[in-house]
Amino acid sequence: MLPIIKWPGGKRRILQHLRQHLPLKYGTYHEPMVGGGALFFDLEPERGHISDSNNSLINFYKTIADDPEAVIVELQRLKEAYEGSRKKEKFYYQQRNRFNLLSASNGQLAALFLFLNRTCFNGLWRENMNGQMNVSFGNYKKPSFPLVADIFKASALLRRTIINRSDFASILDAAHRGDLVYLDPPYIPHKGNFTTYTAGGFGLEDHIRLSNVIGNLTDRGVFVILSNSDTLLTREIYNCSPHYSRSWELACVQIMAPRSINRDGEGRKSIKELIITNFNFLK
Fold first, then answer.
1. What pLDDT sits at residue 95?
2. Whole-model pTM?
3. CATH number assigned to the domain with residue range 12-53+166-281, chosen from the 4 options 3.30.450.20, 3.40.50.300, 3.40.50.150, 3.40.50.10470
4. Residue 137 buriedness (CB in 10 A; 0-12 / 13-18 / 19+)
5. Tens digit of pLDDT for each residue in 89-112?
6. Which listed site, 55, 164, 194, 256, has its alpha carbon 20 to 30 Å from 83?
């Protein structure tokens, strides 16, 4: 199954690499920084647990699980209004303001979330420090939206999944020996500063904290797989460098991954990434 939303750093382009590095058997699938959930929707786990710190995203998934019909009806209304509008950019910003004011029912908010996600610039969901979506208009001739059947299929998967809004560290309370945890944090940049997509951001201290969480999960016998950029800092934080010593180690495999969220062609070339696992080092 394909994901029903776009998301910064979505993993559809490296799914074939991720599949090659999954354990043969595992219990519950956990994804505590789910975003667009490309791997989650691809695997369609029988037992799943997803979470994220982004409130709008989690409310969207919960509403798709609980009331897909309401989302479908409202999304169709928005699509028809958008297609019939002579001033599509103005219509987009009106709906963005409406979403940020939270002046709608759950079904309407979820439909607005999906509408904005598919009509904003390059699917780049970003929020200001007040938690308001602030991405500019995408100016698509004909934006694509998930089919009704896809929304119902996603709803069936999400209904059998635990969905929480929480920090990634909460995975320590949820994952048990033999479970699989996939971690997809904001990437450590190859150059420049960390990029912030949501209010609060995710910086160097968060990566270090996440590395310690992986160590804890490893000691408890939980399978972990993580995606990130291939930089010296990444290798040091996540213990991929031979000179960096801890009581546990991780296996790191370099892959070439295409990137798409960038305004210029240079930013859309393939870049070096790491797939990091702990499977060989579980106690």
1. 96
2. 0.89
3. 3.40.50.150
4. middle
5. 999 999 999 999 987 788 999 999
6. 55
